[in-house]
């Protein structure tokens, strides 16, 4: 199907794309997570940066994240047309052509990497470039359609922003930034597998080899519990480093207990009960997973914000 035919409604003129349609290409919800975690990584770093440098850096990180989203939508346009939850995106809805999405993604990728390197340092720019490459090439073009471990390995792409923020301030990588990366990396599989439990039909129809499609929901439930148990010590471990403190540790303990409880509840479920209540437990766990990541990084942000006043940290 050509771009022209995609952009034609039955018996009408081509759909006119607006600013909102082009902005939607950048996956603003994903971009907001990128901005937030990168900002936390920047703020909790032991080296302060000029406010204008910090603002510019976060802006270019956000643009780089958005560029990744545009390239992801360009490559996955065929899948997005099949899956119910993605059919309203700019390309499958016929508002933006695949060619335009590719041009926007490539242009913004190059601009964001170069400008971040100029605004902060080469290390931060290189990390952003690798993040875009990893998300678009390694995850989107390769892993997503090839292996049920797609979201496990591909989750690294979404875990890099706090490392980039840290590198903006320090010019390097440390145990603290690695642990911030690890929290998001280990959180990604149970988060997306919970979604896949009640969206299995969509993934199956689109031919995406999610774990629920290739190994079934029972195996997926076990994987969610295992990764949740592995995530807890990583999240708690960050609390013993220079970015941690009593506020973060209290938050991490409560959230990880709730997360483990939720994962255990999912593991115990059988499909008859899940279908009977329309995956109520699974949906609740998915919502909790969103809160889990936000509150962990929010607690780190509070610790970092209080340090200048002698209140944050240990």
Automatic annotation (TrEMBL):
It is found in: Cell membrane. It is a multi-pass membrane protein. PROSITE patterns: UBIA (PS00943). It catalyses: heme b + (2E,6E)-farnesyl diphosphate + H2O = Fe(II)-heme o + diphosphate. One of its GO terms (molecular function) is protoheme IX farnesyltransferase activity. CDD domains: PT_UbiA_Cox10 (cd13957). It comes from the Bacteria. The chain crosses the membrane at residues 30-49, 55-75, 96-116, 122-143, 150-169, 175-198, 219-241, 247-267, 288-306. Interacts with CtaA. InterPro entries: Protohaem_IX_farnesylTrfase, UbiA_prenyltransferase, UbiA_prenylTrfase_CS, UbiA_sf. Pathway: Porphyrin-containing compound metabolism; heme O biosynthesis; heme O from protoheme: step 1/1. Keywords: Cell membrane, Heme biosynthesis, Membrane, Transferase, Transmembrane, Transmembrane helix. This is Protoheme IX farnesyltransferase. NCBIfam families: cyoE_ctaB (TIGR01473), PRK04375.1-2 (NF003349). Its EC number is 2.5.1.141. Converts heme B (protoheme IX) to heme O by substitution of the vinyl group on carbon 2 of heme B porphyrin ring with a hydroxyethyl farnesyl side group. Carbon 2 of the heme B porphyrin ring is defined according to the Fischer nomenclature. Belongs to the UbiA prenyltransferase family. Protoheme IX farnesyltransferase subfamily. It holds the Pfam family UbiA.
């Amino acid at each position: 199907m050509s771009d022209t035919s995609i952009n034609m409604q039955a018996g009408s003129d081509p759909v006119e794309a607006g600013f909102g349609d082009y902005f939607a290409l950048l996956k603003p919800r994903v971009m907001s997570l990128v901005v937030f975690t990168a900002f936390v990584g920047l703020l909790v770093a032991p080296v302060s940066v000029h406010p204008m440098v910090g603002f510019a850096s976060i802006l270019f990180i956000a643009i780089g994240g958005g560029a990744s989203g545009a390239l992801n939508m360009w490559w996955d346009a065929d899948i997005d047309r099949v899956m119910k939850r993605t059919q309203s995106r700019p390309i499958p809805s016929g508002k933006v052509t695949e060619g335009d999405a590719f041009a926007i993604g490539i242009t913004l990728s190059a601009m964001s990497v170069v400008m971040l390197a100029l605004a902060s340092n080469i290390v931060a720019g290189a990390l952003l470039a690798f993040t875009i490459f990893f998300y678009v090439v390694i995850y989107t073009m390769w892993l997503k359609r090839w292996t049920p471990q797609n979201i496990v390995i591909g989750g690294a792409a979404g875990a890099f922003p706090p490392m980039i923020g840290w590198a903006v301030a320090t010019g390097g990588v440390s145990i603290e930034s690695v642990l911030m990366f690890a929290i998001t990396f280990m959180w990604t599989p149970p988060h997306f597998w919970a979604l896949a439990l009640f969206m299995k039909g969509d993934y199956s129809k689109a031919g995406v080899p999610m774990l629920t499609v290739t190994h079934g929901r029972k195996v997926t439930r076990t994987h969610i519990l295992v990764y949740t148990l592995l995530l807890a010590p990583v999240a708690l471990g960050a609390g013993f480093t220079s970015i941690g403190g009593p506020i973060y540790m209290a938050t991490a303990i409560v959230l990880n207990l709730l997360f483990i409880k939720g994962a255990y509840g999912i593991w115990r479920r059988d499909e008859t009960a899940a279908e009977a209540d329309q995956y109520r437990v699974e949906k609740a766990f998915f919502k909790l997973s969103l809160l889990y990541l936000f509150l962990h990084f929010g607690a780190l942000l509070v610790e970092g914000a209080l340090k200048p006043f002698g209140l944050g940290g240990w």
